[in-house]
Design goal:
Blueprint: E1 3-8, E2 11-12, H1 19-36, E3 41-49, H2 53-61, H3 66-83, E4 90-93, H4 97-112, E5 116-126, E6 131-133, E7 152-161, H5 167-176, E8 181-182, H6 187-195, E9 200-201, E10 203-205, E11 214-215, E12 218-223, H7 225-230, H8 232-235, H9 246-251, E13 256-260, H10 264-277, E14 286-289, E15 292-294, H11 309-315, H12 322-330, E16 338-340, H13 342-372, E17 375-376, H14 387-404, H15 408-429, H16 431-436, H17 440-461, H18 466-475, E18 498-499, H19 519-523
Bound molecules: 5'-O-[(L-methionyl)-sulphamoyl]adenosine.
5'-O-[(L-methionyl)-sulphamoyl]adenosine is lined by residues 9-12, 20-21, 23-24, 49, 229-230, 232, 259-260, 262-263, 291-292, 299.
Length: 524
């Protein structure tokens, strides 16, 4: 049994999900769905991060208890992921009782190992980052560069973790394991940060932060929210230092942990140090994705340009999330920033999903019905030596290789490139002319090649567009589900002889988003 364990960052439950959060969850979902087509046992974890000063302050401002605020927003995140067909196996909340109890055990273990000590401290805390900042990292005006806010000066006696003790081991691990930080260009950034690493405060006094998990044996201190949050990746599996659950033994270490570039330091420095201190193996890969902007502008509440996935779904009257999922996945190369605009969205999905792929299927099925009454004769089935067949098999390998490097946009491009090849093949061979010239066998073989190619395309695209791929499979009269196809079993020549389809069963798999039909245009 080959297992594959993937995680996303857990989102702060102080607000509702936006398309930036969605970008990460869709990306991890596409990876999970692809690896389910290759491995026996894929486990996909996501959830919400529910403690800390940020949540405490937001709740107070909204006249709610922190738990009420978290319940409300965790519900919104789950609903949003359902709308986007995110196929997670588990949704963890850091207010779950099991999580809280295990975090205390983890803290205790770090203390027992001598990795934690008490220390009086003055520092600059940014609530947005939930982190102390080094004065060196502030802007010229003394602001947090990510949140553009002045950090608060904090003077406290806290518990400290001996992060510096693990510095050399982490550096060595990064250098010896090039797959550990992906994309590779991010590794240097982490190595530079490691140069300046110091021990970190891992608790706050209860007076300054009351909403969190108490330090075991010292109720006056609350465990630092990043220790609490990072632990979710193992508490979800039932990690317990004395008696780890079966799930933990089965899935840990994670195969890939997907996060945004802004929280790489926590995942590539703090997290490995905690794991080393717990004597646990490190995840194979931390993959840092880029950020999504809207019309080239950073999304922010103050600018008022925050878009929720539902806004896009509603304004374009989408009946399923596939077009949105697809666009988000192709808008940026692996690890780089991407942008959303209504116009780019419409143009890209029209070009790839409606014109390139949808039309190809539609016109081929129509020709099959028109020239052959939808029937495939045994002698029309083409061999795996055919050029198009070879190209299809090559595409499967290329897509797998891309996914092995978490190159989700690049993998989609491999599929679209193949679809371009097939479109060109149809135009070059012109089956309509072959039919006119009564070269029926040649015509039938061309159509067969295209239909088989469509079967490959739908299976490869299923992680991005599960609904459209399933629709293609149904129109190809398949009984298996597109998402369940094992890529190793994807063999050429499996559309059998017999009646494939009839006129009434043919329909477009994706309707162009025209300004006439887009709700946004109608409303505005
Ligand atoms: N709670 C922490 C993560 C703890 S993980 C142990 C956190 N939460 S967050 O809500 O601020 O962000 C959650 C994830 O969404 C992060 O990986 C972050 O990079 C990502 N994104 C938030 N805004 C984003 C964009 N505009 N674009 C892409 N991803 C973005 O950080």
């Amino acid at each position: 049994m080959k297992k594959y364990y993937l995680t996303t960052a857990i989102d702060y439950a102080n607000g509702a999900p936006h398309i930036g959060h969605a970008y990460e969850k869709i990306q991890t979902d596409v990876l999970a769905r692809h690896f389910r087509q290759r491995y026996d046992d894929v486990y996909f974890l996501t959830g919400t991060d529910e403690h800390g000063i940020k949540i405490q302050k937001t709740a107070a401002a909204q006249g709610m208890t922190p738990k009420e605020l978290c319940d409300l927003n965790a519900g919104k995140f789950r609903e949003c992921w359902d709308d986007l067909d995110i196929s997670y196996n588990q949704f963890i909340r850091t207010t779950d009782e099991q999580h809280e109890a295990i975090v205390q055990k983890i803290f205790k273990k770090l203390q027992d190992n001598g990795d934690i000590y008490k220390h009086s401290y003055t520092g600059l805390y940014c609530a947005g980052c939930e982190s102390f900042l080094n004065p060196r990292d502030l802007t010229e005006d003394g602001l947090c560069p990510d949140h553009q806010k002045k950090p608060e000066e904090v003077k406290e006696e806290n518990y400290f973790f001996k992060l510096s003790k693990y510095k050399d081991r982490i550096i060595e691990h990064i250098k010896n394991n090039p797959e550990f930080i992906q994309p590779e260009f991010r590794a240097n950034e982490v190595l530079n940060q490691l140069e300046h690493i110091e021990d970190i405060s891992v608790s706050r006094s209860k007076e300054s932060v009351s909403w969190g998990i108490p330090v075991p044996g010292d109720d006056s201190q609350i465990i630092y929210v990043w220790i609490d949050a990072l632990s979710n990746y193992i508490t979800a599996l039932g990690y317990d230092s004395e008696n780890p659950a079966e799930k933990f033994n089965k899935y840990w270490p994670a195969d890939v942990q997907v996060i945004g570039k802004d929280i790489l330091k926590f995942h590539a420095i703090y997290w490995p140090a905690f794991l080393m201190a717990l004597d646990l193996p490190l995840p194979k890969t931390i993959f840092a994705h880029g950020w999504i902007t809207i019309d080239q502008t950073k999304m922010s509440k103050s600018i008022g340009n925050v878009i929720a996935p539902k806004d896009v779904m509603d304004s374009f009257e989408l009946s399923h999330p596939d077009a949105f999922r697809y666009f988000m996945m192709v808008t940026a190369p692996a690890g780089r920033d991407g942008n959303y605009s209504d116009l780019d969205f419409k143009e890209r999905v029209n070009a790839d999903l409606a014109n390139n792929i949808g039309n190809l299927l539609n016109r081929t099925l129509n020709m099959q019905v028109k020239y052959f009454a939808g029937e495939i004769k045994p002698e029309f089935i083409t061999s795996a030596d055919d050029d198009i067949a070879k190209e299809a098999v090559k595409t499967v390998e290329a897509v797998k290789a891309r996914f092995d490097k978490f190159e989700v946009a690049e993998a989609a491009q491999e599929i679209v490139n193949f679809s371009n090849v097939v479109n060109k093949y149809v135009n070059d061979t012109a089956p309509w002319s072959l039919a006119k010239e009564e070269k029926m066998s040649e015509c039938a073989k061309v159509l067969y090649n295209v239909l088989e190619s469509m079967r490959f395309i739908a299976a490869l695209l299923a992680p991005y567009t599960p609904n459209i791929s399933q629709d293609i499979y149904e129109q190809l009269n398949r009984t298996e589900k597109a998402s369940d196809v094992r890529l190793d079993d994807l063999k050429w020549g499996e559309i059998p002889a017999g009646v494939l389809t009839e006129k009434s069963k043919i329909k477009p798999v994706f309707l162009r988003l025209d300004s006439e039909i887009a709700g946004a245009a109608k409303k505005g």
